[in-house]
């Protein structure tokens, strides 16, 4: 760890080298407990606030699905929650949802447009008349600011630009063109540019459906069937975050409908999709990235439910969760969420009576890293705290 000695004892009072204390002990704590360590003394505060430690701590955090819950008996905007599979005790027990954020000012809708390194790009909307406000935030540190410069654009991704270290938004203009032949734009958060910068178009027949998945430092999107009858035309769109350019790669000839992406084991790419009857999910893994060779890894048959589903099978949504080498499927059915393993065994469920459920393809991953660009955004924003609120008892 930069700035920390590699040998010798430290003034922490533990008789343990700081590097071992940081990278072997502190890094394993929850975010709340790590923040509490800063209150012990100045030496602990320095160690527990080191940026290298916070980045290492972030890398250890699980990537959790984001769930939007809309109360059917309330006019308030939906809430954003994270589903933490680690709270499931197994055996079909109850799983808990963790509140991430909610809109407070009479807004009609809130959405997650992009995520990266613990940062979320949120859109808060009013319908009559239609007004959309865009916010970048870190729910863990509760830093937040408005991004009015991207008004009139749609966010396709959020990424860290390796050469500069800037966090940038990949944008395109609002268009009815499903193939996104319009040019794309880049906007660096906290920069002085008044408008997003055009970087040109994408390869032919590129599609953007689900949230991007980061593999080898590049963003990957699955194809949106519009429909595309020829499977050979289906491709995965790749955005090189260093060169800021696009290319296409092969997708498995597997899914007739929409295909979704996830980060598989060993930092490679995975894809999944429903069968025709929406009773099973096929999961494929890219076992050789350079040759673009795919293989089917799992065929997950979902358990039969004892009660009829509200909205029928067509209302089902699903996402794949990876935890180390373990793979799970989280799916919504009516007003409930179910977690199963790759054998289709029910591990946990969450009954959400009176709520409409939407599973985002974006993920949230806790980060205690604070970013200086928020100081610039705050100066140009309204009172963001009156628009977005956080759960009580945060870090």
UniProtKB/TrEMBL annotation:
Residues 16-57 form the F-box domain. InterPro entries: F-box-assoc_dom_typ3, F-box-assoc_interact_dom, F-box-like_dom_sf, F-box_dom, SCF_F-box_component. It comes from Lolium multiflorum (Italian ryegrass). This is F-box domain-containing protein. PANTHER family: BNACNNG10540D PROTEIN, F-BOX DOMAIN-CONTAINING PROTEIN. Pfam families: F-box-like (PF12937), FBA_3 (PF08268). NCBIfam families: F_box_assoc_1. It comes from the Eukaryota. Gene3D superfamilies: 1.20.1280.50.
